[in-house]
Write a structure and sequence with these properties.
268 residues, alpha/beta, TIM Barrel, 8-stranded parallel β-barrel, 10 helices, globular, histidine biosynthesis, His_biosynth, lyase, lyase activity
Length: 268
């Protein structure tokens, strides 16, 4: 059986509204999360992701009421992340109607949260989100990745919405997340986020080749072919996008039709 590739709209939330920025900065309003999620539901999205992008930085929990409103109206899997620091937070979000929780900063600070979450709720519920950026200070203990322009770098994990470097190698962290029970990796490159220049193919492909769990490519879609590149060159299992959907440049259905004509198996 051929596994279909997933198209996932991502809704970054701040103060209960959907926002979108470039390289994690200059956020602008993009609408009501439940209305947008409903639209993507109708367009044939495979899943929707809600990320409460300032929850960790502001040291508060995720907005449960938005999750409940969305879960009441949607008939597709919902993943929720942002400000999840404990098993109780996970339980609250799953109880509110989410299918999966996404952990990022808290997983880096306490990797046992991945294994404890997987043990209690099942690996299928635990998504480890990784924000990464290129670091050109090479050293032998890093996983070196070649870039299309011939340069080499390693990718560093950053936390708190991209504002704090950790010194952690992204490929090693993805492998650890898998070994601890993560069911999926949601990979966002700060280099490409919001740029419309396409996914960061070198790191997407590198991590996809090193882990056995699904990798969701995120950050940088601007054209229909960027989705195709994410699945082929990037070897991703799912492609996630935000602004091209929020501002009506493409519908999910248009993306899937384009992919189907190019031989990518999708659920139409």
């Amino acid at each position: 059986m051929v596994l279909t590739k997933r198209i996932i709209p991502c809704l970054d939330l701040k103060d209960g509204r959907v926002v979108k920025g470039t390289n994690f900065l200059n956020l602008r309003d993009a609408g009501d999360p439940v209305e947008l999620a409903q639209r993507y539901n109708e367009q044939g999205a495979d899943e929707v992701v809600f990320l409460d992008i300032t929850a960790s930085k502001e040291q508060r929990g995720t907005i449960i009421d938005v999750v409940q409103r969305a879960a009441d109206q949607l008939f597709l899997p919902l993943t929720v992340g942002g400000g999840i620091r404990a098993l109780d937070d996970m339980q609250q979000i799953l109880r509110a109607g989410a299918d999966k929780v996404s952990i990022n900063t808290s997983a880096v600070q306490d990797p046992t949260l991945i294994s404890r979450g997987a043990e209690r709720f099942g690996t299928q519920c635990i998504v480890v989100a990784m924000d990464v950026r290129r670091n050109f200070e090479l050293s032998p203990e890093r996983n070196i990745v070649g870039l299309p322009d011939g340069r080499e770098c390693w990718y560093e994990v950053v936390i708190y919405g991209g504002s704090k470097p950790t010194g952690i190698d992204a490929i090693a962290w993805a492998e650890e997340a898998e070994s601890r029970g993560a069911g999926e990796i949601l990979l966002t490159s700060m280099e490409t986020d919001g740029t419309k220049n396409g996914f960061d193919i070198p790191i997407t492909s590198a991590i996809s080749g090193r882990v056995g769990i699904p990798v969701i490519a995120s950050g940088g879609v601007g054209t229909l072919d960027h989705f195709y590149d994410g699945f082929t060159a990037g070897r991703a299992d799912a492609c996630l996008a935000a602004s091209v959907f929020h501002y009506g440049e493409f519908t999910v259905h248009q993306v899937k039709e384009h992919l189907a004509t190019r031989g990518i198996p999708v659920r139409l």
